[in-house]
Amino acid sequence: MILLILLGVNLAAAVLLAFIGDRKRAPEFNIACSAATFAASVFLALSVYETGPIISGNGFFFVDAFNVYLAVLTAFVSMTTAIFSRRYMRVERSRGKVGHKGMRFYHAMYQLFIFAMLLALLTNNVGVLWIAMELATLATVLLVSLYRTPAAVEAAWKYFILCGVGIAQALFGTVLLYFAAERIFGEGSRGLLWTNLSVVADKLDPTVLSLAFMFFMVGYGTKVGLVPLHNWLPDAHSEGPTPISAVLSGLLLNVALYALIRCKVLVDGATHSHKAGYIMMVFGLLSILVAAFSLLRQKDIKRMFAYSSIEHMGIATFAFGLGGPLATFGGLLHMLVHSLTKTTIFFTVGHASQMHSTQEMSSIEGLIKGNPLVGWGLMLGVVAIAGMPPFGVFTSEFLILTASIKNAPFFIPFFLLGIAVAFAALFRKVMPMVFGRVPNNQKPIRVASVPVIVHMALVLVLGIYLPTFLSQWFHTAVELLVR
Amino acid sequence: MNVSFAAQLNSVLAALILLTAFGLLVQRRIYGLLHIFAWQGFFLSVSTAVVGYSASLPHLYISAVLTLTIKVIVLPYILYVLIHRLRIHKEVEEVVNIPTTMLIGIALVIFSYHLTAPIRELSVFITRSTLAVALATVMLGLLMMITRKKAVTQIIGFLAMENGLFFAATSATYGMPLVVELGVALDILIAAFIFGIFFFQIRTTFDTLDLKAMEKLKEEE
Prior knowledge:
The complex is a heterodimer of chains A (483) and B (221).
Chain A: H1 2-20, H2 26-51, E1 54-56, E2 61-63, H3 65-94, H4 100-122, H5 126-144, H6 150-185, H7 194-199, H8 206-224, H9 232-239, H10 242-271, H11 275-295, H12 301-322, H13 324-356, H14 367-370, H15 372-385, H16 392-407, H17 412-434, H18 449-464, H19 468-481
Antiparallel strand pairs in A: 1-2
Helix pairs in contact in A: 1-2, 1-4, 2-3, 3-4, 3-10, 3-13, 4-5, 4-10, 5-6, 5-10, 6-8, 6-9, 8-10, 8-11, 9-10, 9-12, 10-12, 10-13, 11-12, 11-17, 12-13, 12-17, 13-15, 13-16, 13-18, 13-19, 15-17, 15-18, 16-18
Chain B: H1 3-26, H2 30-54, H3 58-86, H4 98-122, H5 130-147, H6 151-173, H7 178-206
């Protein structure tokens, strides 16, 4: 029941907002719907916390400690992003960057996108998981081209084609998985239910599953933004409206990684080896290194943070590839703190580029003097994302590093090199933007302060002290993933 | 119709699907592409029905009808209308190096056979030799998307890839569960509307549907 409310609110909101999306109070309605979703997700989490995993809807939905935490995160971030989007999109609307239809479309697709991600997280059917991932892509494609500039249209086309091709590979993987499962379960939906598959994972044919994993890796890996499949990501993140960049980076990448991990658990069970893990580690490490060095060359502020997202997704993928309780715990925490931190950064970056009417980093200056909240928000966000204590990213990276010292010492130098280069690059670019005098071209705007403050506070708390319920929750999730 | 006849019929259909995939690779006229694409969908649909008949699985009839409606009627019609409205029906695309493309295509087919060899051993179904063809169709669609530079052609390549995936589903597994197939069909229809909108967006922003015009977003040195 609660699941239907959780998914239904978004879907209903998407339909309604398609008609009233440009009314005066539409942004508030958008926030209210997201808040309702968040409340529903908290209820769901509480019941999972009390009674354990839930299977409902004739086996169609499956909620355990792993996906419910991502669902709560998704609902929460979509709520705060909706709050940010209210002020941000009003400025864009008043500057004529989007029109009447654009706003309606934007609000409707925003809710549809959240719906698709929640469906992907909560479904038990591996096939439906694929459908929801594709739906999430399709919902955001035209949002990337919302401003209709040549660069935006090109970015959206690239996003559409590359992710379409990528995710088609994941469908092939799903077909192969079903092929293996059909030999055990026979014809019908049962053979694609994750709860069934995970029970019989060791009976699935290892050759078929290894082949399937390659397709999953390429397919969902494209959506996670792993190098060398990452080409769409910087473009899509930099050209779309900033709230969309925030949710793409903070949420969609997580959901794609979630899909990949679910598949990896099955493959590990079937092959009894660590092959899938090694593949993920190599992809992860490559992403960290390539993204870190690409950071150095960026001129566009949103593009730079898009590369930073690739780096952090690389770290999380590396952690899950490494496996073991400690690294998996670190990976789960990293997904959480990266999502909170990176969305904060995008909120401040969005306001900063509105203040200067440009995304070129060289023309942005004096943010702290001009607007302390934006300036300090960006500064602290970057401190946090670069992995400095006392923020949560430090904790998760430290855990992952500790785990890899024990199990994979060979990878450590590369890992550290990537983090160090990213650290240096980010600071070199961000310092001149936040400090210094207020330039003439800076215009004051009304900013959304609540999301920035709340997110940063959460990241800080997670770095200093992990609440017992959360660590217990993660432990349960770790038990599900590590066998 | 006995099982061995059905298996042979299915192999013939698989060969035809592969042939159309190669046809798409080298066809230069836009209507020609559309026709080949529709034929591919038709063979796919017949093949699904044959498998459904010989394995007596009625739900495959539904997916055969679904394929026939979407891949043979709806999608080609949408594309036809778009091409007509955009007035690009007379355009002939330059396709460079047809022999090389064909050779790469053949290499991809061999690679697909090699990749699926261990799985073929496992399969006991009448359709077992067709999984390689399915994978080859996916790869040829991918190759088409890489070698072609027009938005419409890339989309047809993309849809041909989806055809290959669908063929894989029927040939390896007797079709995915119905809920998944319906969902995939829905996604494809949404995608069709999106690329329709896209064609107009690209046309109005770049004055052409040639993707060579899109080279702005590159990493600056």
